[in-house]
Amino acid sequence: MKKLPVKNRLFGRLRYLYVTTMTEKPIVQLKGVSYFYASSKTKALDNIDLDIYAGKKIAILGANGAGKSTLFKHLNGILKPAAGDILVKGEPISKKNIRTVRQTVGIVFQNPDDQILAPTIEQDVAFGPINMGLDEEEVEKRVKKALELVNLSGFEERSPHHLSGGQKKLVAIAGVLAMQPEVVVLDEPTAGLDPLSAENIMKIIDGMNKKFGITVILSTHDVDIVPLFADIVYIMHHGRIEASGTAREIFKKHEVLENAHLRMPRIAEVFELLQESGMDADIMITPHDARDEIIRLVDNRK
Ligand SMILES: Nc1ncnc2c1ncn2[C@@H]1O[C@H](COP(=O)(O)OP(=O)(O)OP(=O)(O)O)[C@@H](O)[C@H]1O
User: Which spans are transmembrane here (predicted)?
Assistant: First the structure.
């Protein structure tokens, strides 16, 4: 085949990049979404615009009461916005498409007791696939795979109500994964977990994204896990998105963080202290980057 001149090849490549990035539509999109709880007279969401792209890992960072759970309840139609639109795969959520929307976007609630209903783990994880009208063989296959993914194989016959908080969260995640969603939304998945269980759950969440390309949106106020996980971070406060960007960009916004009752990751504070001691240190927010920066600083002093 005749090779195109370099200029044409370059143009072709640029056009490809344009087509794949600029024209890609968000898998979930919020346009000017507001929500008001009449009972507490609270404007929980205030004109939220959000574009979530397929395959990304998103962290919504916000203090207690920022509006994270309310936002999530809008993503698969549990709550309807008082104003604005929510589109899933380009379609506004409606009565007609709500079942499809709920198969596309699975939510793992903050409290697993709100989600776990059946007497055995197997029955609980099978609930979604059965509701989707899948045949017995497919349901069984999905339950087995979902329990494997959360490391709960062998727990099928046990009662979910006699599990630890961390294990209950895993059952809730398995229930959502068994529906094979494209987007998984997790409301504070590490809240109330010990460090090892939190790390385990974050590994499972990361695996969903890496192995299956699932788009992950999670909320947290744990600033230390965010840089280890997220491609894109949003800061929420008083029902508004106050900032967005990569973790590195976000954790430079000291004022925004402070106003939102958040802080930098602990590891970054070490670099602030080094700067205060007169060292030419860059602020690092992950252990690996911190190691590299410390080696650089040590080498420079030799
Ligand atoms: N069911 C409800 N009825 C009335 N007000 C509510 C209800 N749920 C939440 N709110 C109010 O809406 C605001 C946002 O709450 P939301 O639970 O969405 O915040 P959050 O960021 O998820 O908080 P947290 O980190 O504590 O879970 C708060 O002021 C809260 O008191």
Answer: none
Q: Output the CA 67–ligand 1 centroid distance in Å.
A: 6
Residue 189 lies in a domain: yes
Residue corresponding to tokens 């059965």: 130
Query: Does 12 fall in a domain?
Result: no
User: Scanning the structure block, which residue is given the tokens 């490391």?
Assistant: 151
Helix 195-212 / helix 165-177 crossing angle, nearest 10 deg:
10
Q: How remote is the C-alpha of 9 from its chain's centroid?
A: 37
Residue 91 resides in a domain: yes
Asked if the structure places residue 295 within a domain, the reply is no
**Which residue range is the domain that position 219 belongs to?**
25-264
**CATH assignment at residue 150:** 3.40.50.300
Closest CA to 158 of 166, 148, 168, 146: 168
Model's pTM, two decimal places? 0.89
Name the closest-CA residue to atom 7, ligand 1. Answer: 37
pLDDT, tens digit (0-9, with 9 covering 90-100), for 122-134? 999 999 999 999 9
